[in-house]
Specification:
alpha/beta, eight-stranded mixed β-sheet, 11 helices, 8 strands, about 50% helix, elongated
């Protein structure tokens, strides 16, 4: 059985159309399937639409989170509730075509345990594309996760063994995609064209993007701390050189003082930046140590086990 999981935030307009296309695509494949929709505490009637889909088709199940937690938390929640032999992440906005599921399933049947759908092109604006390119460059180069697709992947299939391994991680502040890549297993990539959003506005704000970058880096690498050490060492060396130059060129005292003041300001900025970076690591360690639930389920629709429908 194939489990399709979909995080949804204010997607009441898109879910009915997505269901029609998904049902047709899975019928053509001739495989058993289920669809788990996690409503990320939408402000519209998304969960009412989910209840309607559940009533019309028992293969559909729904969960509603008690507060807006972000798409990655919604995906984590879904991966802890799916029951299939493989799970496929499918966006609610129809940017990832359901008809492409057959192309994902084929490498899985051939032995791949993680199948990434890699974007050939992205319909977003230049700023969005630039941000995405920078993020994936950071993850592949400084962080060292070279198996993450260079152009990004919002669409993937993972085998049951990967789902079970994913469930062993209790991290809260992380990227689902980075964690799956870090887990390893046999990974494959196929290309697809990401489509424009069907309707509505994306909840993927700049603040959430920045949070994802920080979570992804701090969860898998200490390179910001190492860069602070390198920069600090470089500034110490520059200070020594500046002092020696000042001793040799005392007549130009005014220029030397101005240079030293600039150096002190730069060093102060570096210290503040280093403290902020250390603070991010310390805060995330504190957040993990608190042991608060990563998500809280407010309501469920469909055949969700009582123990799973409670606070995780």
């Amino acid at each position: 059985m194939i489990s399709i999981l979909t995080p949804a935030f204010n997607e009441s307009e898109n879910l009915p159309a997505l269901y029609q296309r998904l049902a047709a695509a899975m019928s053509a494949l001739g495989v058993d399937w289920e669809w788990l929709i996690v409503d990320d505490h939408s402000r519209d009637d998304t969960f009412a639409i989910v209840r309607g889909l559940v009533a019309a088709d028992p293969r559909v199940r729904g969960l509603r989170l008690a507060h807006n937690s972000g798409s990655h938390v919604a995906i984590m929640c879904a991966l802890h509730h799916v029951e299939g032999d493989a799970a496929v992440l499918l966006a609610a906005d129809l940017q990832d075509p359901p008809e492409f599921l057959s192309a994902l399933i084929e490498p899985w049947r051939a032995g791949a345990q993680v199948v990434w759908a890699v974007r050939r092109q992205h319909p977003g604006d230049r700023t969005h594309r630039g941000f995405a390119a920078l993020y994936y460059w950071i993850m592949r180069k400084p962080v060292g996760m070279s198996e993450i697709p260079a152009t990004g992947a919002d669409f993937f299939l993972i085998d049951r063994v990967v789902i079970d391994a994913f469930r062993q991680s209790r991290e809260r502040n992380t990227s689902v995609f980075a964690l799956i890549s870090w887990l390893g297993f046999r990974q494959a990539q196929i290309e697809y064209d990401k489509q424009p959003r069907a309707s509505g506005r994306s909840g993927w704000t700049l603040a959430r993007k920045i949070t994802l970058v920080i979570d992804s880096i701090t969860a898998f690498s200490d390179f910001p701390l190492r860069w602070c050490l390198y920069a600090g060492t470089g500034l110490i060396a520059l200070g020594i050189v500046t002092g020696l130059i000042g001793l040799v060129t005392l007549p130009s005292l005014r220029a030397g003082l101005l240079f030293i003041v600039g150096l002190m300001v730069g060093l102060s900025g570096l210290q503040l930046a280093a403290l902020a970076i250390i603070g991010q690591y310390v805060y995330r360690a504190l957040d993990e140590a608190r042991g608060r639930p990563a998500w809280v389920i407010e309501a469920s629709a469909g055949a969700v086990k009582p123990a799973q429908a409670a606070v995780e």
